[in-house]
Write a structure and sequence with these properties.
The protein is built from eight helices and no strands. The chain has 140 residues and is mainly α.
Length: 140
């Protein structure tokens, strides 16, 4: 149990130092668009320009999501590029993966862009989860 708790706390510290959910959503959006590109021709609405851009842009979204996770210092450039690539996937890859991949990419890039690295942790929220906040806020 101790090793598992140690891994969880290490993962939480790692996750707190980067725009985790923004990178994950952007990578998931790229993966979803890549998967919809492999759909049967009965399902595919629009293959895109020459087919190459339909695979290149979602692969770039996936790469940008991973770069946001593992190199958070450059998150502004990666997130702006991620929004542009996500929006570019609409005409090139099956309407942005039936809009799901497009929306995941835009939401993830926006989260990564708005992330502040030097933000104080939200201790009050943790206290409320533990039940310590009931005495602080006067709630029974």
């Amino acid at each position: 149990m101790g090793e598992r708790a140690g891994f969880r706390s290490a993962f939480r510290r790692w996750r707190a130092d980067r725009p985790f959910w923004g990178g994950v959503l952007l990578a998931l959006g790229g993966a979803e668009i890549l998967l919809t590109m492999k759909a049967s021709m009965k399902v595919v609405l629009h293959v895109g320009m020459q087919g190459l851009a339909g695979y290149l842009l979602p692969a770039l979204m996936l790469l940008l999501g991973l770069l946001i996770l593992f190199n958070p210092a450059q998150r502004l450039f990666y997130s702006i590029t991620g929004v542009l690539v996500s929006l570019g996937s609409w005409p090139t890859s099956n309407l942005g993966g039936f809009f799901v991949g497009l929306l995941l990419g835009v939401a993830g890039s926006s989260l990564a862009f708005g992330w502040l690295p030097d933000q104080e942790p939200r201790r009050r929220r943790r206290r409320l989860r533990r039940g310590e906040g009931a005495a602080v806020t006067g709630v029974q």
